[in-house]
Specification:
Elements lengths: L19 E6 L5 E5 L8 E3 L12 H5 L3 E3 L5 E3 L5
Antiparallel strand pairs: 1-2, 1-3, 4-5
Organism: Streptomyces genisteinicus
InterPro entries: SCO0607-like
Protein name: Lipoprotein
Length: 82
Amino acid sequence: MVLTGCSGLSFQDDICAGGEYPVLAVGSTGSACVEEGEKVPDGYTRYPEGKVPLKTDDTWDVYWRTHTVDEEGNVVEVPDAG
């Protein structure tokens, strides 16, 4: 099957590969992917439940471009992000 640019379909890449989960850098908009079963690396945290980006440019991926989690675990806006 061949799809053309005029098909009206949109494709979004997964944030992480299969067997991985996304984590957010504390205090910044950085992110990473961690292998399932591995601990969250120092300086990172899991995304808050229900606010995990799954695909590029999905609602939560866009949201976390201007927000982060601070040292106390509060969701905050990042100054000059975007």
